[in-house]
Amino acid sequence: MSGNNSEDASGEPTGKLAELLKLLKMNGNDVTKLTQSQQKEMKDYKFWKTQPVPKLDESVSEEGPIDRKKTPEEIPNEPFPLLAEFEWCTLDVTDQQQLEDIFVLLNENYVEDRDASFRFKYTREFFNWSLKPPGWKKDWHVGVRVRGTGKLVAFISAIPVNLNLRNKLVKSVEINFLCVHKQLRGKRLAPVLIKEITRRVNKYDIWFALYTSGTILPSPVTVCRYTHRPLNWDKLLEVGFVHLPPGATKPQMVANYALPKKTTTRGLRPMAPKDVDEVHALFVKYQSRFDLVQDFDKEEFRHWFLGGPEQLNASEDTKVIRSYVVENEDGKITDFFSFYSLPFTILENPVHKELGIGYLFYYASDADFGFNDRFDKEATAALKTRLCQMVNDACILAHNAKMDVFNALTSQDNALFLEKLKFGPGDGFLNFYLFNYKSFPITGGIRDDKSYDVERRSNLGVVML
């Protein structure tokens, strides 16, 4: 890092470098753990300097759009140029062969852990759920193929979302599944993919986007930490997902994470189509406490939490989303929670080939609705008690569905139950970004030392896949 950066007599950084390091520390990132390529990227951010995003050392004085509002007519009709050996394509995810192309590309080239031991194992059912919500556009499933062979070597997607940022509606898209074939990652395809999906979204008169990254880019609106609750500790040890702590024995660890076979919440049952209206109203009221949320209409709510017609009748092996409600003796629904399945492929293990992973999705509870302040001591205690019971039952249900670990971020009110329910802090952090929109910082549920922030919790109410 160069430019206006320097060190004082004690060797401590000053100037913009010091400001950047302070920001990274506040966001829970350790700059000393960045790879050389990430450190180089932080020096110049050549691509992101050209985009409407806040600079890393920029102080936001007012929330709102960055670029002036354009019109779709001002946006070029032609796609951005590619190298001669490549060509653009629009993927039709209703076509089984084209869906298979996405499936193969992501399962062979998408995110791996740092040790290259695990990789997301996306399923066709998962894509049908995640890429086709109400209002989805075929034009927003963008690919790059090798000219001549037709092989899909890059992909990016967008889906429509209505964001609510501190009671301001922001019509946006959610960007996801950016993937470039491993052998082509020096071709600068990723920036062109981002520019092309931006162009296509702009043609629909949408100018803002929400996206996430495990790496630091200009400039996160919030940062959350990944947490993991072992459900099958024995298997997790065998595949290297966990390690035996000093002084502990394997039987002790298995016993420590053991769960009952049956749930304990009275009135707990799977969510049904008839519940949509009541659960949606509960959900909207609960979400209103957070600074940044996604506004779901009832059609969107039905899709994301019931999964569409094919998921309602899906077998346990192919079910992606699972949603449950708590109905009291008077027939009122007081609570709701959901989690989805996205397994890992285990890359190098002679015995195990797959790791079952459950992800806490959205939830809602009326436990603290009778209080004016969610941070009131009694309100906090009431919500904590309810969430601990609900999420513990979610872990039991996930374990019974043959999942090996249950993941959650430090977003929402999660900090209230993470430690009690034995969710261990993971190595990864997820940075949330807004494209073309400045926002004041949003708490992410972690303190400066990266521990769970039980007092402030998080004001982020968005969960991204």
From TrEMBL:
<dbReference type="GO" id="GO:0004379">
    <property type="term" value="F:glycylpeptide N-tetradecanoyltransferase activity"/>
</dbReference>
<keyword id="KW-0012">Acyltransferase</keyword>
<dbReference type="Pfam" id="PF01233">
    <property type="entry name" value="NMT"/>
</dbReference>
<dbReference type="InterPro" id="IPR022676">
    <property type="entry name" value="NMT_N"/>
</dbReference>
<comment type="subunit">
    <text>Monomer.</text>
</comment>
<dbReference type="GO" id="GO:0005737">
    <property type="term" value="C:cytoplasm"/>
</dbReference>
<comment type="similarity">
    <text>Belongs to the NMT family.</text>
</comment>
<dbReference type="InterPro" id="IPR016181">
    <property type="entry name" value="Acyl_CoA_acyltransferase"/>
</dbReference>
<keyword id="KW-0963">Cytoplasm</keyword>
<dbReference type="Pfam" id="PF02799">
    <property type="entry name" value="NMT_C"/>
</dbReference>
<comment type="function">
    <text>Adds a myristoyl group to the N-terminal glycine residue of certain cellular proteins.</text>
</comment>
<dbReference type="InterPro" id="IPR022678">
    <property type="entry name" value="NMT_CS"/>
</dbReference>
<feature type="domain" description="Glycylpeptide N-tetradecanoyltransferase N-terminal">
    <location>
        <begin position="65"/>
        <end position="224"/>
    </location>
</feature>
<feature type="domain" description="Glycylpeptide N-tetradecanoyltransferase C-terminal">
    <location>
        <begin position="238"/>
        <end position="463"/>
    </location>
</feature>
<dbReference type="InterPro" id="IPR000903">
    <property type="entry name" value="NMT"/>
</dbReference>
<dbReference type="InterPro" id="IPR022677">
    <property type="entry name" value="NMT_C"/>
</dbReference>
<protein>
    <recommendedName>
        <fullName>Glycylpeptide N-tetradecanoyltransferase</fullName>
        <ecNumber>2.3.1.97</ecNumber>
    </recommendedName>
</protein>
<keyword id="KW-0808">Transferase</keyword>
